[in-house]
Structures are given as C-alpha cells and as structure tokens.
C-alpha cells in the first residue's frame, strides 16, 4: 500500500519491524497458526538496553485454548498483560502461557545483562521469579496498561512504552557490551560447548566470568551455552523429517546420547522422540 506522507507511514518509518522468531518457540509451526507474533527494534536511544519489543495476539473464541511454550533466552522481560503485568526473570526450564478466548500481550525484551542498571541488584534474584513492575519503576502500572491496550497498532503501543522508558534510562554500563559480545559468540560459534572455551577466547578468569553472569545475566555461562544448543536441537527436530539423535548429541558436545536426552527432557518435559511426535 502506498501511504506516502501519511501519519501512519511516518510512525512505521520510526518503528522498524524485526523478523519473526526462528528459535525458542516450541512447536513453532502450530504456534503460528494459533497466534500472531511480531517483533520490533527499539529506538536508537534505547537499543543499548532493549533487544526488541514483541507482541502476541490471538483469537481463539471458537477454538480450544492453546498452551504456548517457549525456551526463554537469557533475557529479562517486562510483559504488559491485562491479567497481570509483570517483570519476568529468566526461566530455566520452559515458559508456558495459556492462550484462550481473545487477547494480546506486549513485551519488552532486554538485552542480556541490560536489566541490571535498572534493577541495581544481583539479577539472579529474579531467576525463575516474577516481580511487580512498580517494585522497580515508580509508576502507576494500571494507568500505563490502560494506555497501552487502548491502542490497537503496535507502533502506537511502542511510542507509549518508549516515552515511559526514556524517563528511566540509566548510564550505559560497559559490562553489558562485554556480556553481549560473549553471548553473541556463543550463538554464532557452535564449537563453543564449554565454559573453558569462553575463558580462553575472552581471556577472562573462570570465576570472574561466572560472577559477572550471575550478577548481570542471572544464570551461569554454562546454562547459556546449553540453552542455545537446545534451541538448535528444537529447531532441527521441527524442520527435519528424520533426526538421528545419537549423531545430534555428539554434534552438540554431549559425551553420550543418554546425557543429551536427560537435559532435553529436564528442560522441555518430553524426550526428543516424544517431542517429535507432538509436532508431526
């Protein structure tokens, strides 16, 4: 649609849309049928701290409820939800949310380590926990929720959220850039299967690395490595007709298939074979 010079186009040119998530969403093909997902980059004044905004909309008025599940990244989220807006620490297992009737949620995904300057405490205190938003930010949450959900367009919602966030921007902490360079390397380099490899690549002491991740990220570097490798596994199971789990376990750095299956089941709640049956 050619909408040159309209207000709508001006807003869209400011808010840049990001591609759909390719990893982390379990049973992704089915999830896309049940709900609409969208992600947007943050304004340049905020993108040091914020990886992206995300929205999920669904209308299951004439359908059964759907349990949406993800394998969360090492990031803190603020989620605005009519049933209860919260700050979500990293979930070590899988995160589940029941979609029913009709609704939407709006989320802010912080870069790994980037919530620390807002929280000003050890971020591991939030791991596997939620926190009320007004325990960190001086705000009337109900009023902000109402402003957000009055708007239908994601771009309008983002403008409201960014206007609020800009009043609370802390100093840029160089540790955040350092942490993200490590995590980017973990994502890109499939040969990184141990903390010792990170220690060598970044010339940092193992204990210093572990303390840094505990304080800023909320989980250990070992957990981060395993989580990104599990993302790869879930994606391969979703997209590959036949999966050789023994080869996959070795490829991901496991000594044997049994340890791989144990980690997978502890995280997702099903063995790889059982999970495969739920998506085919």
From TrEMBL:
Keywords from the UniProt entry: DNA-binding, Transcription, Transcription regulation
A Pfam family per the record: HTH_18
Domain HTH araC/xylS-type: 177-278
SUPFAM superfamilies for the chain: Homeodomain-like
Keyword tRNA processing part of the UniProt annotation: no
InterPro entries per UniProt: AraC_XylS_family_regulators, DUF6597, Homeodomain-like_sf, HTH_AraC, HTH_AraC-typ_CS
Keyword DNA-binding appears in the UniProt entry: yes
Name of this protein: AraC family transcriptional regulator
Organism: Leptospira kobayashii
């Amino acid at each position: 649609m050619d909408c040159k010079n309209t207000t709508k186009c001006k807003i869209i040119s400011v808010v840049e849309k990001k591609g759909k998530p390719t990893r982390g969403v379990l049973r992704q093909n089915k999830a896309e049928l049940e709900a609409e997902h969208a992600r947007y980059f943050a304004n340049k004044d905020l993108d040091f701290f914020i990886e992206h905004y995300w929205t999920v909309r669904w209308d299951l008025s004439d359908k059964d409820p759907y349990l949406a599940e993800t394998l969360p990244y090492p990031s803190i989220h603020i989620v605005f939800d009519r049933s209860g807006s919260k700050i979500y620490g990293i979930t070590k297992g899988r995160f589940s949310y029941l979609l029913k009737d009709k609704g939407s949620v709006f989320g802010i995904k912080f870069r790994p380590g980037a919530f620390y300057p807002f929280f000003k405490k050890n971020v591991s205190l939030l791991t596997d926990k939620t926190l009320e938003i007004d325990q960190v930010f001086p705000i009337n949450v109900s009023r902000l929720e109402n402003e957000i959900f009055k708007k239908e367009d994601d771009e309008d919602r983002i403008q409201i959220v960014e206007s609020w966030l800009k009043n609370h921007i802390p100093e840029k902490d160089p540790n955040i850039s350092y942490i993200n360079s490590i995590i980017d390397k973990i994502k890109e380099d499939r040969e990184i299967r141990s903390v010792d490899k990170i220690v060598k690549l970044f010339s940092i002491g193992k204990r210093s690395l572990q303390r840094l991740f505990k304080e800023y990220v909320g989980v250990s570097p070992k957990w981060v490595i395993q989580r990104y490798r599990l993302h790869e596994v879930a994606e391969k199971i979703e997209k590959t007709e036949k999966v050789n789990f023994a080869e996959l376990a070795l490829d991901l750095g496991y000594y044997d298939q049994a340890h791989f299956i144990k980690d997978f089941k502890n995280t997702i709640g099903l063995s790889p074979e059982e999970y495969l049956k739920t998506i085919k």
